[in-house]
């Protein structure tokens, strides 16, 4: 059985941040009307699986087709049992990448443990190189944390890692229509900081999202984004970036609102998405989730990764393009490049 699949594992729902554009929605909205639709995420975390169930599943990763586990949420590093899931995933021989808001990295016991466990990559979210703008786009729930703390977390991890190669440290930036310049501004900040990799990714909102009109790229925004991506890939930097084909995919994704085919789609073949309630989907796309026939619905509850992912096609034929599709490439095909030893390009 080839070991070539990536799990994007949304382990826990709560998060100390309240980003209004987050895939998980906002607590305020959900307190008034808790989501009931299939696959809809919520920071309310009413259906998150208990630790014992997660642990039992993580134990079955050994000998399974899962090559890489990308642990996200919600915020995975605010929940201490996440460290045990990481440990089991590493013991199973998987590459482990953590997606974090960066605040837990300011706690030395967390950074030390990530290093000791041999975590391969830590991707930290920052949506603007400007502190005030970032804290407007990514407000913390308490108002007590923000940009400066995220940078302190990144610095703490880089310092604690010292001369060791691992974990590789990256910045992820959600690019919104009003601020194409963040693509290169953030690259410069990341490079100055000694970060290893950088991924700007297009915002992905459903057309009924209240911020869709304000934040989602329109056709007239495409030239400025294309110009920024061109500069990003043209400027000398020691940052690892996704393959240059990613820039073409980014531009193509924001150039259309339409549905369409996703050539060589790896969702359900080399990528699976696990929600905090244990549901397993081909990918996080709400369109794909809605289109999953009920007899194909799966859960990690009581499941064994060796059988759960045994029967997969080499590639899936998907006609349900969404802007989120482009965000999946860095998790799967581009990840080896992002985690590589730092070399000047
Ligand atoms: C949902 S967060 C979870 C991990 C962690 N709490 C964090 O803040 O990075 C994972 C990534 O998704 C991004 N993200 C959230 N909502 C998004 C959206 N609507 N479009 C594109 N990316 C989004 C975040 O900025 C972050 O980089």
From TrEMBL:
<dbReference type="InterPro" id="IPR007197">
    <property type="entry name" value="rSAM"/>
</dbReference>
<keyword id="KW-0408">Iron</keyword>
<keyword id="KW-0479">Metal-binding</keyword>
<protein>
    <submittedName>
        <fullName>Heme b synthase</fullName>
    </submittedName>
</protein>
<dbReference type="InterPro" id="IPR013785">
    <property type="entry name" value="Aldolase_TIM"/>
</dbReference>
<feature type="domain" description="Radical SAM core">
    <location>
        <begin position="1"/>
        <end position="244"/>
    </location>
</feature>
<dbReference type="InterPro" id="IPR006638">
    <property type="entry name" value="Elp3/MiaA/NifB-like_rSAM"/>
</dbReference>
<keyword id="KW-0411">Iron-sulfur</keyword>
<dbReference type="Pfam" id="PF04055">
    <property type="entry name" value="Radical_SAM"/>
</dbReference>
<dbReference type="InterPro" id="IPR050377">
    <property type="entry name" value="Radical_SAM_PqqE_MftC-like"/>
</dbReference>
<keyword id="KW-0949">S-adenosyl-L-methionine</keyword>
<dbReference type="InterPro" id="IPR058240">
    <property type="entry name" value="rSAM_sf"/>
</dbReference>
């Amino acid at each position: 059985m080839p070991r070539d699949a990536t799990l994007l594992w949304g382990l826990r729902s709560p998060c100390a941040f309240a980003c209004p554009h987050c895939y998980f929605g906002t607590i305020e909205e959900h307190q008034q009307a808790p989501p009931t639709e299939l696959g809809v995420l919520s920071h309310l975390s009413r259906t998150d699986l208990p630790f014992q169930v997660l642990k039992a599943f993580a134990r079955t990763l050994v000998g399974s087709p899962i090559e890489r586990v990308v642990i996200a949420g919600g915020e995975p590093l605010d929940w201490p049992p996440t460290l045990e899931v990481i440990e089991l995933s590493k013991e199973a021989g998987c590459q482990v990448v953590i997606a974090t808001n960066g605040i837990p990295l300011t706690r030395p016991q967390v950074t030390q443990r990530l290093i000791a466990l041999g975590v391969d990559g830590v991707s930290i979210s920052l949506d603007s190189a400007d502190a005030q703008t970032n804290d407007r786009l990514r407000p913390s729930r308490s108002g007590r944390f923000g940009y400066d703390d995220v940078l302190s977390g990144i610095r703490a991890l880089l310092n604690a890692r010292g001369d060791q190669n691992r974990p590789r440290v990256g910045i992820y930036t959600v690019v919104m229509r009003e601020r194409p310049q963040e693509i290169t501004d953030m690259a410069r900040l990341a490079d100055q900081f000694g970060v290893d990799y950088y991924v700007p990714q297009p915002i992905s909102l459903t057309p009924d999202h209240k911020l869709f009109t304000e934040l989602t790229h329109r056709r007239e925004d495409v030239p400025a984004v294309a110009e920024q991506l061109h500069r990003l890939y043209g400027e000398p930097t020691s940052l690892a970036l996704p393959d240059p084909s990613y820039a073409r995919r980014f531009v193509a994704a924001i150039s259309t609102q339409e549905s369409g085919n996703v050539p060589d789609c790896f969702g359900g073949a080399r990528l699976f998405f696990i929600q905090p309630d244990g549901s397993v989907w081909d990918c996080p796309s709400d369109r794909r989730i809605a289109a999953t026939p009920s007899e194909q619905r799966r859960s990690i509850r009581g499941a064994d990764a060796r059988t759960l992912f045994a029967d997969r096609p080499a590639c899936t034929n998907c006609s349900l393009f969404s802007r989120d599709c482009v965000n999946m490439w860095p998790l799967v095909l581009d990840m080896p490049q992002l985690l590589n030893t730092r070399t000047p390009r």
